[in-house]
Design a protein that fits this description.
This protein is an alpha+beta fold. The chain has two helices and six strands; from the N terminus they run E-E-E-H-E-H-E-E. The longest helix is centred in the middle third of the chain and has 18 residues. The radius of gyration is 14 Å and the shape is globular. Belongs to the RutC family. GO terms for molecular function: deaminase activity.
Amino acid sequence: MSTITPVVSDAAPEAVGPYVHAVRHGDVLYCSGSLPLDPASGVLDDADLAAETRRSLANLQAVCASAGTSLEHALRMTIYTTRLDGFAEINDAYAAGFPGHVPARTTVGVAALPKGARVEIDAIVAIPGSSDE
């Protein structure tokens, strides 16, 4: 039976609620939503949608690294945005983060996100070459 292991990264912003950055179960990492907050200050930079997308991906990458994987092994992503009218801008920034492998993805329009963010991204990521069975 696989164990469930919480993952907290010192290189990602602190969670804004009672949850961990990710949970590992077997060879899969289930990442919580990543806001585009500065990891050191926890502050949302006044940035455009592309910058928010890049920051969210960078924060997810830090969480993945803490679990011994990377977004290169992402299986599925969900992007939540308050700005579906900025879909093309988000897509361009997202695509730049995945020059090779592109995971399955859903984009969802929402009314609001924590801390005034306009983008939040979660992920399910494989952990290659590992097993806790």
